[in-house]
Amino acid sequence: MVSAHQSLPRVVVAAPASGHGKTTVATGLLAALRRRGLTVSPHKVGPDYIDPGYHALAAGRPGRNLDPFLVGADRIAPLLRHGASVPTPADIAVVEGVMGLHDGAVGRRDYASTAHVARLIEAPVLLVLDTTAQGRSAAALTLGMAAFDPAVRIGGVILNRVGSPRHETLLRDALAEVGVPVLGAVTRAAEVAAPARHLGLVPVAERAPESVAIVTALAELVEATVDLDAVLDLARTAPPLTTPAWDPVAAVGGPAGVERPRIALAGGPAFTFSYAETAELLTAAGADVVTVDPLRDPALPTGTRAVVIGGGFPEAYAQTLADNTGLRAELADFDGPIVAECAGLLYLGQSLDGVPMCGRLDLTARMTDRLTLGYREALAVTDSPVARAGEPVRGHEFHRTTTDPGHGDAPAWRWNDTEHGFVAGRVHASYLHTHWAGHPEAARRLVEACR
């Protein structure tokens, strides 16, 4: 049981912009601290699914997202406490930021930014700087980042991509002038990179042995270049958290009945995008949650009453998905509720880039050169297993595919005066990714729909 006031050492790993090395440092910190024998709770600002996979591998427990836009600002500290308390209490929480420190949702100033989350959880910031083409200006940049919002405390800097010992000395001297300690310096030669794809890093589940090797290398990199004792001292300056931990049982109002319907969540390399709270909320609402891998499992688990198919990269596995004809046929005829997001939408269609899929929905899908990305404020158009018509929901899109048609006769959502997605019988499918901690009634509604 978590106490009302929890002293949780914590630090936010941020940067002035994307590409400075946040994921390298955050993942390496998680792994290095774990190798010291500490229990580390990994978190990621924003909606991204891929970085938390690396965090989970490094920390040995689920990587969790902290996104005020998707779940509401009032849930951020409670979700942090929840993540840091299950399955066991953590000794420290490491939170990787998103984009630049002060970059928030478009048109909302710094709302949902790393700075916003750092304020909500009262955590000091460890700023990662790409110093490739910088000297003393790194100190000016750091000073400006700190002065832009005095409520955000930059407690130290990690110098990344340092060119030489002379370069490092110059940078350290400049930062000493502005009173910001340097807690580590990573040379360009020592940098470790994970393979990338059109939507970011390749997910951990797709390349497990290589991912383990990358995380091990990142741990060794951080151990050799970062003052871990100084990072721990910085994390311990965070004040106690006074907000109660988020509780999935309280969020859904307890089990939806005495029966425990079995709900299958898609997993495996093709469907890696799922928030940890989804399974927790379904379990709290009374479901028996199991996993199905559409690449390998020939059928749904025995007794499955509903299916949730989240996001991922089905385009990378289209032929293997097509070859699993038994599961495709079962999903085409499945009479229980099906909830599909993004990759799940593509999988339920007739084809993906000409390769046959489940055929449950009358649509075809194809890859494009255009990235569709951003937060969405949606309104449910049609009653479905996860939403009532007229219900507002926040989510995000993240894909390079398109479907023909873009929505069905009974659309799932409407945003920007346009209809999106499909509600066909007991199927709800669209490109919209949602975080059910932000609308936990979706979990309860799905469990009730199993009856």
Notes on the protein architecture:
There is one protein chain. The chain is an alpha/beta fold. Helices cover 31% and strands 25% of the residues. It has a 7-stranded parallel beta sheet, with helices on both faces. Strands 14, 15, 16, 17, 18, 19 and 22 form a 7-stranded mixed beta sheet that branches. Helix 1 crosses helix 8 and helix 6 packs across helix 7. The longest helix has 18 residues.
Write the layout of secondary structure elements.
Layout: E1 10-14, H1 22-35, E2 40-45, H2 50-59, E3 64-66, H3 68-71, H4 76-83, E4 92-96, H5 114-120, E5 125-130, H6 137-148, E6 154-162, H7 165-177, E7 182-187, E8 196-197, E9 200-201, H8 208-225, H9 228-235, H10 248-252, E10 262-266, H11 276-284, E11 288-292, E12 304-309, H12 318-323, H13 325-333, E13 338-341, H14 343-348, E14 351-352, E15 355-356, E16 364-380, E17 392-404, E18 413-415, E19 418-420, E20 422-424, E21 427-430, E22 433-434, H15 441-449
Parallel strand pairs: 1-4, 1-5, 2-3, 2-4, 5-6, 6-7, 10-11, 10-12, 12-13, 13-21, 14-16
Antiparallel strand pairs: 8-9, 14-15, 16-17, 16-18, 17-22, 18-19, 20-21
Q: What attributes does this structure have?
A:
glutamine amidotransferase, P-loop_NTPase, 451 residues, GATase_3, 22 strands, ATP-binding, alpha/beta, 15 helices, ligase
Q: Strand sequence of the main sheet, in spatial order?
A: 3-2-4-1-5-6-7
The overall pLDDT, averaged over residues, is 93
Number of strands: 22
Largest sheet: 7 strands, parallel
Which consecutive residue ranges, at least 5 long each, have pLDDT under 50? Answer: none
Rg (CA only):
22 Å
